[in-house]
Amino acid sequence: MISLHSSAIKASLHRSFPTSLRSTLSVSNSARSLIRLPSAGKRNLSVISASVRDSSMSSNNDSHGSSSKVAESFFRSVLGQMETVYLNRNPTPKSVLELVRSVDGEQLCYDHLAFRTFGVGGYGIDSLASFFLDYGYTPMDELKFPAKKLRALWFAPPDVSAIPGGSGVNGPLPRVFISELLVDQMSSQTQDVIRKYTQASPNGKKYAALSSALGTLTWEKPLSSEFEQLARESEYAAWTLVNGYALNHVTISVHRLKSHLNKIKKLNQFLEEKGVKLNSEGGVLKVSPDGGLLQSSTVADSISFKFADGVTKSIPCSYIEFAERLVLPQYQNVPESEIRESHRRDGFEVGNADKIFESTFQEQLSRRAG
């Protein structure tokens, strides 16, 4: 595991990312070096210790100082706009949230938000990570998906209290999961298409968060033939070409629900009985090897998209995920009323995420149509 928790590194991080709008739109050299820090030996991608997480969150909270309320208000407003675009485009997540709230009440917590990017020309993870780093998020683990030619980083939120009565992006700040396509590993034809659009808009990467909040691409619309070409080699690449920095999914924190739906198996059953199609790749329920992280997701919605050549096609859009994090073995004797998020299994799991990526893939979408 990369260690990004020393006081010296944290101090450098916060000096490099002042809380200002200008700095949210670009990534400093020191941040890039942190994000791309090579591994020193084998990583543990399964469990992030509660003590390390708590130490990181405490330091981030201290660093906000008296300006944290202003920064937090702006930050949550941007997240709220990303969420609005996402819910307006995707009826299934909106319906699922309404169904869960009808049983559990209005206050739902998000476990994490997820985004996809092109790892080329500065358009990768770094471009969007800067927005979250500026507001106190901490880079955690890298996950690698060789078969899909992807890598990802997840970011832990600062220790900021939820807005009283807040739900979703106004509740406890969620983790953030950002992935990128390893463009250099793709065929020359696919690389040519991706570079055609990213190079034609070289400064677009500075506005990743703005692009997500507005629901617009930072490059021009592609040709339908180019979308099909990418889809044949990488459905992830095709999705990113037409969706850009759009919120790929939000994730309900299942164990934080207050009703009987706070167990993911019961939630899955409830949703399937309501006619919601769940991603079946690798089984509906994805379980980490240590048994501590349980995840499932819906099949992505589709939207109508008009390409640059005038052709209109149905393309995959976004979905909603569910995550239950179990209490770590060392905290099994802590009374239930005293259990906090830091007592639970943290981080992400390659095996789970690999299957959840396929929520936007054609095989799953065809199940939905059927």
Automatic annotation (TrEMBL):
Cofactor dependence: Fe(2+)
Oxidoreductase in keyword set: yes
Pfam families with a match to the protein in the record: HGLS
Keyword terms of this UniProt record: Dioxygenase, Iron, Oxidoreductase
UniProt keyword annotation of Oxidoreductase present: yes
TM region positions: none
EC number(s) stated in the UniProt entry for this protein: 1.13.11.93
Enzyme's top EC category: oxidoreductase
Family note: Belongs to the 2-oxoadipate dioxygenase/decarboxylase family.
PANTHER family named among the record's database cross-references: 2-OXOADIPATE DIOXYGENASE_DECARBOXYLASE, CHLOROPLASTIC, DUF1338 DOMAIN-CONTAINING PROTEIN
Name the UniProt record assigns to this protein: 2-oxoadipate dioxygenase/decarboxylase
Phylogenetic lineage: Eukaryota, Viridiplantae, Streptophyta, Embryophyta, Tracheophyta
Gene this protein is translated from: LOC104754868
